[in-house]
Amino acid sequence: MISVLVPARNCADWISAALRSVAEQTEAPSQILVADDGSDDGTVDRIRETGIPGLELLSASGRLGISAQMNRLLERAEGRYIARMDGDDISLPRRFERELALMERRSLSVVGSWTRRFGRSNTLHTYPAADGELKAGLAFGTPFCNPSSVMDRDRWNGKVPRYDESWLAAGDYRYWTDRRNDGSWGNVQEVLVLWRMHDRNVGTDPAMGALQRANAGRIRDDLLRDWNLELEAPVRSALEARALGATLDLAGNAAFLQALLSLASVSRESLSATGAERRKVLVAQWDLACLFAAWSTPGLPQLWWEGRRALGSLPSPRTAAKIAVKRLLGSFKGSG
């Protein structure tokens, strides 16, 4: 039995398609719960017009926030499997079938999938498959695309944990970091959710975007404290900048490398990851940081090489070639 939980706010243009995408799954849900967070654009009317069997609408007189709405939904959920969905996204038809198959095959408590952005953006977003890689990557952000996730109630002793309602932004990141020692996680290695980008996404609101970034930084501070890591200010700043997707200069990347080396020192028990899983995550983060910076940063190829060796991984010829090409293009642009 699958219960689908859908927090929704001001998504009248998309909510019908989102709900039909979960109702028409090859592994059909028995319950679809939608919590409207004080919408004022006709979202509630669109939900009622769908006529989808098994759909239940939880209305609210005002805006409570996504964490509070998720708790309302969790209280009403009856299924063994608790699937998350957002009111503006699309689940592909075999999403639940593929996610539950992986969950049962590997005895996982949480499963997500790859996603593809569409609308204002068209990018593929991949997530690791292995439990240890997902947990080692928590220092950089959430381990799932949240509207792709499914939880197995039976592997949480019959009760799925609640959200902390004090987190009005970055509540999902808080939720997963708090759960990092509970059960095993995984991701189906294919796109099963289409993640809509539009002018009303949470990050597009300046105030909410700023709060989300600030809260994410607080969560990372808590993780570092739990892992007994005290980073010097420039190193901590570089870690935060890269976690938020910033491109760093040479000094910034050198500081980021020091952050990665500090994370490499965390014990296996604290990080819930093997040495190989942790190294794979840290090397991927290092490669990405250097690829972002290569076109504008003289001296970056040598630093990348040294960083790879320091992290215990032989430099990849493919990544080396990409960095060299970007550096060459950057030098041409600079000379022009």
Notes on the protein architecture:
By secondary structure, the chain is an alpha/beta fold. It has two domains: 2-204, Spore Coat Polysaccharide Biosynthesis Protein SpsA, Chain A (Alpha-Beta Complex); 227-335, no CATH class. The protein contains 13 helices and nine strands. It has helices at residues 15-23, 43-49, 66-76, 95-106, 131-136, 171-178, 206-226, 233-243, 250-264, 268-271, 275-293, 300-310, 317-335; strands spanning 2-8, 31-36, 55-58, 81-84, 90-91, 110-119, 124-125, 150-152, 185-197. Strands 1, 2, 3, 4, 5, 6, 7, 8 and 9 form a nine-stranded mixed β-sheet that branches. Strand 1, helix 1 (15-23) and strand 2 (31-36) form a beta-alpha-beta unit. Helix 8 packs across helix 9 and helix 9 (250-264) runs parallel beside helix 12. The longest helix has 21 residues, at 206-226. The protein is globular.
Sequence stretches where pLDDT stays below 50 over 5 or more residues: none
Under CATH at level 1, the class of the largest domain stands as: Alpha Beta
Specify the structural class.
Answer: alpha/beta
How many angstroms does the end-to-end distance come to? 62 Å
- Please compute the radius of gyration using only Cα atoms: 21 Å
Mean pLDDT: 93
Output the CATH homologous superfamily of the largest domain. Spore Coat Polysaccharide Biosynthesis Protein SpsA, Chain A
Helix content: 40-55%
